[in-house]
Write a structure and sequence with these properties.
Structural class: mainly alpha
Strand content: under 5%
Shape: rod-shaped
Radius of gyration: 50 Å
């Protein structure tokens, strides 16, 4: 395969410049400046990653500019707070977009390198097949296998680095969303008064939401501890990787020199040297990549930790907001109930006054009826004494009984009116106590004061029910007596 064919197979930026030549009438594959170019490429990518890490560190430090205001007075938010949060949100979005763009550019470069490495791996496999057909040392084949293995490892580490970049992008998106949530929450709190005017939410439901929000705080605290352990793990692992990379490079160099001595083929001397240089360069590139990957993972874990701290603050803020919302809903409900109780009390007072006036009029009528019945009774008694006719006496007896029943009915009517007036009075007192209890609750009375008031209202309600029962028991007998009089 010619040089032009090689360049046609591989991407432009990482074209593997392999030359085909003739050494004692045998094709020999010689590696030229490609390795140095690839190593330089990966070092530049590493420096780019360092720049990205610095950018992210700046973001996580600036994040703490947004402070949540919680005090004994409750949650306080101003339009200025929302304005600052929006500015911070836009700054984070801009930085995240810039970082993601740079990361995507790095991913594209690594993907091109993967394609180049795949083509290079195929060329090395062809080279091995060529030497397997020749009478070469088994140790030389072992050297070729080592080069194949190191190139495969390079391809694997490229894929690992791409996944690490994608994980970073996902975390940056999550970080941006966390700042969006701050703005939304601040707007909700600022519109709390307006929301309460039109809200049909029930205080118990909102209180349950507040309880759930407090449970989420506990979960976030546990998550933060977990993320702290992850940071500790990657910090230690990074130091281990740095030490291991240097040690592995030294051990590999010793192994390759030993292998070179064992091969001892003068004709393949240049090829062996180039293969060893190639393997060592790939090993150095792989080592640099592993360090870069764990640096990225460490900073990604720090972003997750900072995001978790921000979410914890949001959770605390949200729980406090929901608790205050529930309190305000309860206050609104108590106010509405108090207004209703005051209206019911005024209606009861008016009904009591009307009942009192009716009772006064009725009592006067009853008194007049009783006096008339007594007078009629006296007249009938005198007339009975004067008459001698049995039939006349019988009629007079019945007439006397009628007037007697009229008097009894009037008396019962008087009792009924008295009980009715008492019922209205008891009802008014009951409504007054309910209004007093509502007022006491709205003012935040002590438990003892509330219990005493509740006990008093329970006693009065019991008395009211008993009075109502007594009045209702009189109604049937009165109706029967009225019917009897009517029939007579």
């Amino acid at each position: 395969m010619t040089r032009q064919e090689n360049e046609a197979i591989l991407p432009g930026e990482l074209t593997m410049f392999l030359k085909s030549g003739t050494l004692k009438k045998r094709n020999v594959f010689i590696l030229v400046p490609f390795l140095q170019k690839v190593l330089a490429r990966y070092l530049s990518v590493c420096f780019l990653c360092v720049g990205l890490l610095c950018n992210v560190q700046a973001q996580t430090t600036e994040k703490r500019d947004i402070e949540i205001k919680l005090s004994e007075m409750g949650v306080t938010v101003t339009t200025e707070d929302i304005k600052k949060a929006k500015i911070k949100d836009e700054e984070v979005k801009t930085n995240v977009a810039k970082s993601i763009e740079e990361i995507n550019s790095s991913i594209a470069k690594v993907e091109r390198d993967v394609k180049a490495m795949d083509a290079y791996l195929e060329r090395l496999q062809q080279e091995k097949m060529y030497y397997l057909g020749k009478e070469v040392s088994q140790k030389f084949i072992e050297l070729l296998d080592k080069e194949l293995a190191i190139v495969k490892e390079k391809i694997d580490i490229d894929s690992e680095q791409i996944e690490t970049y994608k994980d970073r992008i996902e975390v940056l998106h999550d970080q941006s969303k966390a700042y969006d949530e701050i703005v939304v929450l601040l707007k909700s709190i600022l519109r709390l008064e307006e929301t309460l005017l039109t809200s049909h939410e029930q205080a118990p439901i909102v209180k349950k939401e507040a309880d759930i929000a407090r449970s989420y705080i506990t979960a976030m605290q546990a998550s933060i501890k977990e993320k702290e352990s992850v940071i500790s793990f990657f910090t230690n692992r990074l130091e281990e990787i740095k030490a291991k990379v240097s040690e592995d490079e030294r051990n590999l160099a010793k192994y390759l020199e030993s292998l070179k001595t064992e091969i001892g083929d003068i004709e393949l001397g240049n090829t062996i040297r180039e293969k060893i240089d190639s393997i060592l360069l790939w090993k150095k590139a792989i080592g640099a990549q592993w360090i870069t990957i764990f640096e990225i993972r460490l900073e990604t874990s720090r972003i997750r930790y900072d995001k978790a701290l921000l979410e914890l603050k949001n959770a605390e803020f949200n729980a406090a907001f929901l608790a205050e919302k529930a309190t305000r809903l309860e206050e609104r409900l108590r106010t509405e109930e108090l207004i209703q109780k005051q209206a019911e009390l005024e209606a009861a007072k008016r009904a009591e006054e009307e009942s009192r006036k009716i009772a006064e009029r009725t009592k006067a009528e009853v008194e007049k009826t009783l006096q008339e019945a007594a007078r009629k009774g006296e007249e009938i008694a005198l007339e009975q004494m004067a008459t001698t006719s049995p039939e006349k006496k019988r009629v007079l007896e019945l007439e006397a009984e009628v007037h007697k029943q009229v008097g009894l009915i009037a008396k019962r009517k008087d009792d009924l009116i008295t009980e009715g007036a008492q019922r209205y009075k008891d009802f008014t007192e009951s409504k007054k106590l309910e209004a007093d209890i509502g007022l006491l609750l709205s003012r935040g009375g002590t438990t003892k004061e509330i219990d005493e008031s509740l006990k008093k209202i329970e006693e009065d309600i019991k008395r009211f029910v008993e009075a109502l029962t007594a009045v209702e028991s009189l109604i049937p007998s009165v109706k029967e007596e009225e019917k009897l009089v009517s029939d007579n």
